Amino acid sequence: MEQSVDIRELNERIKNESSFVDLLTIEMNKVIVGQKHLVEGLLIGLLSDGHILLEGVPGLAKTLAINTLATIVDAKFSRIQFTPDLLPADLLGTMIYSQKNEEFIIKKGPIFTNFVLADEINRAPAKVQSALLEAMQERQVTIGETTYKLEEPFLVMATQNPIEQEGTYPLPEAQVDRFMLKIVIDYPQKEEEQMIIRHNLAQSFPKASSILKPDDIIRARKVVKDVYMDEKIEKYIVDIVFATRFPEKYNLEKYKEMISYGCSPRASISLSMAAKAYAFIKRRGYVIPEDVRAVCHDVLRHRIGLSYEAEANNVTSIEVINDILNTVEVP
Q1: Helix (H, G, I), strand (E, B) or coil at 160
Q2: What is the CATH number of the domain that holds 205?
Q3: Which parts of the sequence belong to the ChlI/MoxR AAA lid domain (predicted)?
Q4: Is the pLDDT of residue 115 over 50?
Q5: What total of structural domains would you count in the chain?
Q6: Distance between alpha carbon 55 and the CA centroid of its chain, in Å?
Q7: ω before 153 within 30° of 0 (cis)?
Q8: Are 313 and 258 in contact (CB under 8 A)?
Q9: 124 near 81, Cβ under 8 Å?
Q10: Three-state DSSP class for 221?
């Protein structure tokens, strides 16, 4: 009985603490037309301290979305256009010699900010990609002999363009795992496109207001961790992840030869954190199976390695996830 009282109390607390979510969404919607899934994904990444990989054709407001989010949170924002001639120093910073002081001084790179947009990450060589991914994981950068902590909150949103593959350096599978979510965005609906035209032809383009501070996000992250997750939900998450590793144990024998490797424990952690953040966005103090299912595709789609056989049969990771969700027993 005591636990149910706690849940009620927690529910009230989360309801109060998550009141800013609606305001943030309203501000985002002033600038971004439609793309509800993208806005939700950005919020989940922000609240659960995870990075986001965005895939979509050019012109779908990927840059605008993260720029708007930075404005709303009143945080620092930098956009790095990845190109084949980019060097790690262009990203992290370097040591330059000061003739005036007769010594080397450190010039910090654009990564020292709260929100980083790594535009077309697959256009830069592996050296630059790994420099960014290391900074994402370690939350620190070493220049010369000195190590610098990165600012909090720190969110990387990397975009990749699925159309052209010439002159691109695909992200290694092991590295992609460091992105908490991979969100694939599609073209807007007809009505939405009409609104986009109106926005862009108006005398002044709509602007979002700063309604939060970075400290508010850091505080909200602590509250998200307090969202209650039952043992049954934990077991459900583990079952989903294990089904990608041993499909035959979950009556999915057909995928035994099609999955070359399943999801890592990082997937289980990300799935739990994203489900908690999703419950928080829905202003609930506890996680339900629907929360897990809602974030499952974005968390797992880039973590399942498919074999040549799967590619030959046009099997996608989304199909595999759908089948797993339909097969694994829901608590």
Answers
A1: strand
A2: 3.40.50.300
A3: 256-324
A4: yes
A5: 2
A6: 11
A7: yes
A8: yes
A9: no
A10: helix
pTM of the model: 0.86
Cα distances from 136 to residues 15, 52, 146, 248, in angstroms, run: 31, 11, 18, 35
Give pLDDT tens digits for 201-243. Answer: 877 777 888 888 888 888 888 888 888 898 999 999 999 999 9
Alpha helices, H only, 147-189: 173-176
Same domain assignment for residues 207 and 309: no
How far, in Å, are 52, 102, 234, 252 from residue 244 at the CA level? 21, 58, 16, 10
Same domain, 34 and 183: yes
CA 225 to chain centre: 17
- In the chain, % of residues over pLDDT 70: 96
Residues 21 and 140 occupy one common structural domain: yes
For 270-280, what is the mean pLDDT?
93
DSSP code per residue over 84-151: TT--HHHHHEEEEEETTTTEEEEEE-TTSSSEEEEETGGGS-HHHHHHHHHHHHHSEEEETTEEEEPP
Q: What is the pLDDT of residues 290-319, one digit of tens each?
A: 999 999 999 999 888 888 888 888 888 888
**Which domain covers residue 97, as residue numbers?**
2-216
Average pLDDT, the chain: 85
CATH number of the domain that 316 lies in? 1.10.8.80
Q: Are 267 and 303 in contact (CB under 8 A)?
A: yes
pLDDT digits (tens, 9 = 90+) for 144-183: 788 889 888 888 888 887 766 655 677 777 678 889 999 8
Quote the pLDDT of residue 240. Answer: 92
Q: Where are the beta strands (DSSP E) in the chain?
A: 52-55, 77-81, 93-98, 103-108, 115-119, 140-143, 146-149, 155-160, 181-184, 259-261, 305-306
